[in-house]
Amino acid sequence: MGTSTRWPGPRGGVWLAPNMRLGRVDTLTARGIDNGSDDGAIGGSTGTSDRAVVEKQQIRAIEQVVDALNQTLRADPDAFGLRQGLIIAGTNLIDVLDDLSETGLAAFGLPLDAPADMRETAIVQELVVRVCGAGATPTDSVIRRAVVRCGRAMLQDDRFARGIENADIEYRMSGVLLCEIYQLFFVHVVEEFIKSVVAAKITLWFPVVQVIDPSGVIADWVASNIVGLIPSPCDETGGAEKEGTSLADLARGLLEETVRRVLGLSTDEMGGS
Q1: Which of 9, 38, 53, 248 has its CB surrounded by the most CB atoms within 10 Å?
Q2: Quick one: DSSP state of residue 234?
């Protein structure tokens, strides 16, 4: 996919129903804008009932998108390159988190003489380079956006942020933060995949994010339906670290099972990686 080519999104077969539903959301949202909405949602300040209608349609569309994705991957586990892309990126992410846990910020070669905000930008950029590379497929874009969000989440951690602010190359990532970022990665991948499918079907000219998720419906749905599927390495320790098994090693051992869960695949359907 070239940088100037819009991804048309998945079409045909099991994708007919979600695509039709997304078209309905698009139409309802356009009608709300024509009626003077100023918040990207149906009906503006006087359209509470209309907003409820469009949110209901959005939730149903999300459910249909995820169901279509599950069916597609069960028929072809390599569809969209999503399964293998998640395994590769997940492995790379664990390696980076392991470096930050064992070596600290020194592993990132921070520009110590640069302002703190530039160091923050450098951290996110380095994370993306190490985890994602330069792929340009729709799946690469989904994973890249998820990794950027993980980088920003790392910067929201007080200890991590202080390490960046003080250019403390001795800082080591905590095990708790490692586990949080591991889980967040998969949460954000699911969110970004749903958004990419929705965005592919949106025809309106104004900012897409306002159309596809004006009230955070996608994030709420993922939090309710996907987060609980993602195991945490921190919950798997059982004294393993005392026996020489690191959190990163535990995360590596969970990776394929995690991918299987978030993509709705059974062990048999996963096949070899």
Answers
A1: 248
A2: G
Report the sign of the C-alpha dihedral through residues 131, 66, 183, 76, in that order. Answer: negative
Other Cβ atoms closer than 10 A to 140: 17
Dist. CA 157–CA 174, nearest whole Å: 10
Map residue 1 onto helix, strand or coil: coil
Gap between the Cα atoms of 229 and 41, Å rounded: 30
Predicted confidence at residue 269, as pLDDT, reads 47
Torsion of CA 224, 228, 229, 232, to 10 degrees: 140
Integer Cα distance of 54 and 139 in angstroms:
27
Residue type, 165: E
The answer to whether the CB of 47 falls within 8 A of the CB of 32 is yes
Place of tokens 């709300």: 32
The pLDDT score that the predictor gives to residue 160 is 92
Structure tokens at 259: 């991918």
Q: pLDDT tens digits, residue range 24-73?
A: 887 776 665 445 444 444 333 335 557 788 788 889 999 999 999 999 99
- Structure tokens given for 176: 């708790």
**pLDDT (average), residues 132-143:** 90
DSSP 9-78: ---SGGGHHHHHHHHHHHHHHHHHHHTT-SSSSTTGGG-HHHHHHHHHHHHHHHHHHHHHHHHHHHH-TT
Instruction: Please give, one letter per residue, the 3-state secondary structure of 203-215.
Output: CCCCCHHHHHCCC
